[in-house]
From TrEMBL:
The keyword Transmembrane helix does not apply. This is NAD(P)-binding protein. Gene3D superfamilies: NAD(P)-binding Rossmann-like Domain (3.40.50.720). It comes from Canariomyces notabilis. The keyword Repressor does not apply.
Length: 323
């Protein structure tokens, strides 16, 4: 009932513009603003009762960070994850999210996604802290620039452990938790059931459609993520869980710094030259992507408007690959 009132009221009286904060260039309502706006219609406590939750891996920087910020702006309580070596950065992000959106809206938990035990700990800790899990974004990934003929078995193994097994462990653990929660609340499995109960979202890449030379095992790993995402979608549809992937192009992050450095060394080019050249030659829209380009797509995939979409990999690359 209060939801209807809140919606109705919001339509009648458009919200004034909220102050900007330093998290990104987007407008982010601060908690005082939210409290004032909500007080006409419902209480903050009531609003929090329906807060959806998300876990984002690899969230201390780059695309994962932008996704975490965007989901928080969308109203989610977010567990941010990264490797223990990035705990300080991760805690700082969670702190910023809490001070902007409220004490119960962010939690930091370090874990290596290539460890099934650590992933289980991540999901359980997030549920204990923020409540039942609605959305899991398996964003964490690594890249390496090396010709196939020079790859060691360890190079190959680590790439697939993080980029492919990591997504599998995350999806498996998240889905088990979503199903257990749904079953407890009387929502059994069944085709055609109304109401999506969970969203799993993975990080693929344009190289899952057209590989880049010298990024062979990275390309193969992202191609595998696309396939894995499709099979998860097939197997989890009966539980009302949708599974999709995002496929960014050339995004200016630490990962592309590493790629630029690797390709530049092979071609004798100075720092920054390869990303500039690839962007100029390949991207129709004429600019290198920023993490927020990807976060917007993830926001859509996590949201209600994507409830009838599953098993898809969406390209967000400014016009490099055309499907
Ligand atoms: N940058 C791009 O152009 C681009 C393009 C296509 C796809 N992607 C994919 O998007 C995702 C994010 O990329 P990014 O550009 O932000 O990279 P990034 O290197 O800036 O960030 C990746 C994050 O993942 C974390 N991470 C790595 N291994 C981990 C592990 N085992 N457990 C937990 N966390 C781990 C890193 O510590 C880092 O914080 C990756 O999966 C990447 O492959 C990136």
């Amino acid at each position: 009932m209060f939801l209807l009132r809140a919606r109705h009221s919001a339509i009648l009286r458009p919200a004034p513009l909220a102050p900007l904060t330093r998290l990104s260039g987007r407008r982010i309502p601060n908690p005082h603003f939210q409290a004032r706006f909500l007080s006409n219609t419902t209480t903050l406590r009531e609003d929090q009762a329906k807060t959806r939750t998300a876990i984002v891996t690899g969230a201390s920087r780059g695309i994962g960070r932008a996704i975490a910020v965007r989901l928080a702006q969308d109203g989610y309580a977010v567990t941010v994850n990264d490797l223990p070596s990035l705990q300080t950065e991760l805690e700082s992000l969670a702190g910023e999210l809490r001070s902007t959106f409220g004490a119960e809206r962010a939690y930091a938990h370090t874990a290596d996604v290539s460890s099934p035990e650590q992933v289980a700990g991540l999901v359980q800790a997030s549920i204990a802290r923020l409540g039942p899990l609605d959305t899991f974004v398996a964003n964490a990934g690594i890249a390496q620039v090396k010709p196939l003929l020079e790859l060691t078995p360890e190079d190959w193994k680590r790439m697939f452990e993080v980029n492919v097994a990591g997504v599998h462990y995350c999806f498996q653990e998240a889905a088990r938790a979503m199903i257990a929660h749904g079953t407890k609340n009387g929502m059994g499995e069944g085709k055609g059931k109304v109401g999506v109960r969970g969203k799993l979202i993975s990080a693929a890449s344009i190289v899952a459609f057209k590989p880049f030379a010298r990024l062979g095992h990275y390309s193969a790993s992202k191609w595998a993520v696309r396939g894995l995402t499709q099979v998860y979608a097939m197997e989890l549809a009966k539980y009302g869980i949708t599974v999709n992937a995002y496929a960014p192009g050339i995004v200016d992050t630490k990962m592309w710094e590493l790629i630029d450095d690797g390709l530049g060394k092979m071609e004798g080019k100075p720092k920054g030259e390869m990303i500039r050249r690839y962007s100029d030659q390949l991207i129709a829209l004429g600019r290198t992507s920023v993490p927020e380009d990807v976060a917007g797509l993830v926001s859509f995939l996590a949201g209600k408007d994507a409830d009838y979409i599953t098993g898809q990999t969406y390209i967000v690359d400014g016009g490099i690959i055309y499907t």
